[in-house]
């Protein structure tokens, strides 16, 4: 696959002015640590504080919010109630312990809860009305922590209800073993839920490769109307080319498309996205390769050798690209699939700091309205008022999910908070 360098430039970005949020109504006893700046048409409130490293989140069929707390802290259930023009928590209880460090998902019927830690994916029976959780059953195993990236993003398909997707990142910044699929790293695999409930799958030898050559996928989702699977990826740190440091603005983070799981023929299934040998450009001018465009793949220093034209002609690129080291950790669509919202956690590998925000990218007919080469696809939704204080004194978005009323919930791991965005 080429890097689609012939795609025409996209439409200009929608104008969106970030403004300090007016004094917002708050839930009783809940005081957020930070005052976000909100994009035009959006407002927010703080739903909960004092959580322990909240990572991915999911809204259940009864409208409760389930939160995976990092460090194997378990899963919490926040029962919600409307309070004027905001939503608040009426009860907050732990429903599973020691079960997760990042990923959480529900089956299409809402009756099975899935959680991941660095070693396994576990399934539980779940009653949304009572919050009762059954005994856990490991359905995917063999992913024990190996080095740099312990998260295991998961997503359950509604278009292919027996399928769970599981992402496993690289073991280091440049994981040379991932040039072959046998490493079972830097990839997304699809597994049968029903078969896993009978006998657990081994991540190393089981499942089907949906995509590989992806350094560290930390968020995945499925388009609710068109069925396409999308992922967001954290790319390489400390990049150098011909001995020159180009890491401040390269490589690009990216959002990639993986087709529709239940399609008769999915031409995107099994594609290699280039890592570790090929990385996408965010600032082509800084890279200095003639003809290179935003999202175009190139070979940096210190990676396994490839043929001269391999990056340009035989590896797939992302569908949209984002500022280097902004660390996208989750992506979710609104209910009519006109926009995808992305949580950028921010990275240690850039000075000045960047990321630490939630943005929107607009969609039409199942694809972004902007071109692959666009640098203006992001519309501001919520960001820190003082990004210079990050990462230690700001909120850091991680997980996203919508409820049936169109409210977007956002977790912040370092501050132990959950925010709600209205107007999405």
UniProtKB/TrEMBL annotation:
InterPro entries: 6-blade_b-propeller_TolB-like (IPR011042), Beta-prop_PDH (IPR054539), Quinoprot_gluc/sorb_DH_b-prop (IPR011041)
Signal peptide residue numbers: 1-24
Source organism, top-level taxon: Eukaryota
Residue ranges of the TM segments: none
Domain Pyrroloquinoline quinone-dependent pyranose dehydrogenase beta-propeller: 37-422
Keyword annotations: Signal
Protein name per Swiss-Prot or TrEMBL: L-sorbosone dehydrogenase
Gene3D superfamilies assigned to the protein according to its UniProt record, in alphabetical order: TolB, C-terminal domain (2.120.10.30)
């Amino acid at each position: 696959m080429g890097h689609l360098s012939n795609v025409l430039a996209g439409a200009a970005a929608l104008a969106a002015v970030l403004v300090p949020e007016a004094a917002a109504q708050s839930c009783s006893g809940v005081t957020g640590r930070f005052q976000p700046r909100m994009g035009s048409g959006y407002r927010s409130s703080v739903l909960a504080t004092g959580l322990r490293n909240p990572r991915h989140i999911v809204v259940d069929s009864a409208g409760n919010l389930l939160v995976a707390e990092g460090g194997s802290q378990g899963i919490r259930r926040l029962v919600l109630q409307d309070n004027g023009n905001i939503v608040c928590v009426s009860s907050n209880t732990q429903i599973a312990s020691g079960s997760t460090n990042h990923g959480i998902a529900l089956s299409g019927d809402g009756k099975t809860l899935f959680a991941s830690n660095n070693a396994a994916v576990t399934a539980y029976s779940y009653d949304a009305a009572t919050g009762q959780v059954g005994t856990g059953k490991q359905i995917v195993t063999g992913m024990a922590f190996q080095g740099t990236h312990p998260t295991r993003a998961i997503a359950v398909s509604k278009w292919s209800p027996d399928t769970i997707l599981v992402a496993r990142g690289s073991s280091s910044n440049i994981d040379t073993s991932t040039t072959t699929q046998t490493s079972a790293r830097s990839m997304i695999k699809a597994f049968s839920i029903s078969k896993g409930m009978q006998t657990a799958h081994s991540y190393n030898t089981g499942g089907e490769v949906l995509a590989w050559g992806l350094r560290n996928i930390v968020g995945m989702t499925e388009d609710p109307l068109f069925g396409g699977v999308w992922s967001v990826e954290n790319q390489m740190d400390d990049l150098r080319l011909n001995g020159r440091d180009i890491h401040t603005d390269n490589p690009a983070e990216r959002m990639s498309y993986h087709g529709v799981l239940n399609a008769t023929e999915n031409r995107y299934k099994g594609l290699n996205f280039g890592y570790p040998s090929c990385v996408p450009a965010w600032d082509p001018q800084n890279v200095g390769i003639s003809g290179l465009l935003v999202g175009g793949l190139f070979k940096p220093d210190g990676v396994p050798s490839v043929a001269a034209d391999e990056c340009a002609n035989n590896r797939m690129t992302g569908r949209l690209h984002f500022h280097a080291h902004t660390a996208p950790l989750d992506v979710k669509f609104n209910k009519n699939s006109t926009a995808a919202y992305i949580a950028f956690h921010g990275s240690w590998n850039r000075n000045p700091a960047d990321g630490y925000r939630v943005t929107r990218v607009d969609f039409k007919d199942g694809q972004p309205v902007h071109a692959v080469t666009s640098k203006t696809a992001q519309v501001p939704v919520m960001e820190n008022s003082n990004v210079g204080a990050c990462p230690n004194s700001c909120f850091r978005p991680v997980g996203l999910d919508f409820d049936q009323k169109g409210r977007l919930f956002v977790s912040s791991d370092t501050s132990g908070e959950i925010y709600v965005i209205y107007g999405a």
